[in-house]
Design brief:
CATH superfamily: Rhodopsin 7-helix transmembrane proteins
Number of strands: 0
Shape: globular
Number of helices: 10
Order of helices and strands: HHHHHHHHHH
GO molecular function: unfolded protein binding
Helix content: 55-70%
Radius of gyration: 21 Å
Strand content: under 5%
Keywords: Membrane, Transmembrane, Transmembrane helix
Pfam family, one: Chs7
Number of domains: 1
GO biological process, one term: protein folding
């Protein structure tokens, strides 16, 4: 059967620990259980995914310790991101401090949800897992808007940190979160016929969910890096900060390549782990490098020392 735009079936089948598959497992379970093969048929052991070629079984099943590697990395990333938020907060005079801190806070919020939705310790098909996955999807969409919003505000269209900046910035955070979460809940729980179920069911198709969770993050990241390169090179006429943004872009791309290409290879080699923990390390490293890039273009605004006139 050919793959159409918005089909999650190839991703759920070939990408271990792909969180949005949690939404479709509930959909398939409620509609046509015969589609599920032996790997996914039993929710008491089923890994993340729908009929995955490889997956980490539910915690406790056949001695599984859940997706322990990614759980540990997510926990460490939470601490690291908290440190970055503290670093931004203490730079009280830095340009774009409030907006960049909001981006970091949103990224921080995605991490515990990622830990849960890819951790393989909640039963597939459970309402709790569907709701948490939907919130995770909303946070991811909102996080990438806040990333793009930071680049837009760096052009100084409006003054950062003011109501004219914060109101639209916050409005779109809420809008992306609410829209994506609602769509994801509808896909997973099917309380309306607008966004689910998939037709045909075997394709696991949802174009709106695919756009908000797959197309939008990549597009937002691409536009962000293009805008920041323009600002640093064309407006600020600086070269050193460019390397931070190039490194962040490389790390982000590598994280996605690992997640979609290498993860299954790692899982096949050792079914107790997959590549999700490497992707999380690379993503968090990219966020850390973005912090260094932001600091490098706002360092003259740092307010570390108090000046006492003579």
């Amino acid at each position: 059967m050919p793959t159409n735009f918005g089909d999650f079936e190839p991703l759920c089948h070939n990408t271990p620990s792909y969180p949005w598959c949690n939404l479709f497992y509930r959909q398939v379970q409620d509609t046509n259980k015969s589609i599920l093969n032996n790997v996914s048929a039993n929710p008491n052991t089923a890994p993340v995914g729908v009929n995955p070629t490889c997956g980490i079984p539910l915690a406790g099943a056949d001695g599984s310790i859940a997706n322990i590697a990614n759980i540990i990395v997510c926990a460490l990333s939470i601490v690291f991101t908290g440190f970055l938020i503290w670093g931004v907060s203490r730079r009280r005079a830095a340009v774009g401090r409030v907006e960049f801190r909001m981006f970091l806070i949103l990224y921080l919020l995605t991490l515990p949800f990622q830990l849960i939705t890819t951790g393989s310790f909640l039963h597939q098909g459970s309402t709790a897992l569907v709701v948490l996955t939907a919130i995770h999807a909303g946070l991811v969409a909102a996080t990438f808007w806040s990333l793009l919003g930071n680049a837009i505000l760096s052009t100084q269209i409006v003054e950062d940190g003011t109501l004219s900046s914060l109101i639209p910035f916050s409005f779109f955070i809420v809008a992306f979160f609410v829209a994506t979460t609602y769509i994801a809940l509808d896909v997973g729980l099917g309380f309306t016929s607008v966004f689910g179920p998939s037709s045909p069911l075997v394709n696991l198709n949802s174009i709106p969910l695919f756009v908000f969770t797959s197309i939008w993050p990549g597009a937002a990241a691409l536009v962000y890096f293009a805008l920041m390169l323009y600002i640093v090179l064309g407006v600020l006429n600086e070269v050193r900060p460019v390397w931070y943004y190039i490194l962040a872009a490389v790390l982000f791309v590598l994280s996605q390549l690992d997640y979609f290409l290498l993860s299954k290879v790692i899982c096949n080699a050792s079914p107790k782990v997959d590549g999700s923990f490497i992707a999380t390390i690379l993503e968090t490293a990219a966020v850390g490098v973005l912090y260094l890039g932001w600091r490098s273009i706002t360092e003259e605004s740092w307010d570390d020392e108090i000046y006492y006139p003579r």
